[in-house]
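B., you asked whether I could sanity-check this one before it goes into the benchmark set. Here's the sequence:
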Amino acid sequence: MSTNFKLRNFANPATLKAIARPLLIQFLQRYGDFFAGRHLNMHAGDGFDYDHLASILMSPDEDTPEELLDALFFIDEMSMPQYYDDLVNKMASAGINPGTLPEPTGADLAVAIWLASPSLLESLHAEQFMVRAKKFDSFLSTGTTIPPLTHPTASVLKALEDNLNHWFETKKRGRGTKVFVFMRDGVAWFLVRHGEPYKREGTLKNGESSSIFYRPEKFDVLMYNPEIGEFSIHTSTKSEKKAYCKYFGRHLFGNELMFDIDRSGEKYTLEPLRNDFMKACVSSCG
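And here's what the prediction gave me:
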């Protein structure tokens, strides 16, 4: 997780006050030692210092727990108004009790889901990246028959993530790769979260010039259409596309040469016209 992320909602004390205080305190207590070290009194009742909490959350440093940074990032991202219905539906489908809140805010729902199942909120956040991807490169199956695709098991995903972790690590992008799977209308969507090369940026710490060294996070979107055997990839580098073709082919189909890496985007071919123009014309005209 990037350590220089900006918290849109938690930066505002008024927004923090919109979170039901019992729910907020329950969340903060998971990191009690950290907040106690920053002199936040969680037992102040109506005198709870939201301004002080906002200043703590807006100034993460080297001592901030990684788990807290993850929680803040996902809760903040999913507290946006456009995700409210998704949060409500996810809570209902997962059987999460919203408690006694008659009219929960988006942040209430995000915090409640995180407290019940962090991976559930993380998965919901991952789904949002699928709709943002616009440009895909397509790779077709090399086989004469198109194999079906079943939802990969946890062990298959673990083996896939292990291979991707090793590959990204050799490319100076670190470990921590996570693959999310979503089935929609017969098409398998995959979202791959991984690290980018380290970045260094200037910062101010205790009024002094300093710097922060961190690894940015990146999301790649992939999808497989079993009707036509097409594997589509939205990422930034050619080497990543080759790695995805190789490792997804290996673990999902037992064939790391499943997709033709050298013929990206060639959905259609004019080869029949080149080889036998008259026969192709007769076939097309019936």
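One thing to flag: The longest helix spans residues 154-170. Otherwise nothing jumped out at me.
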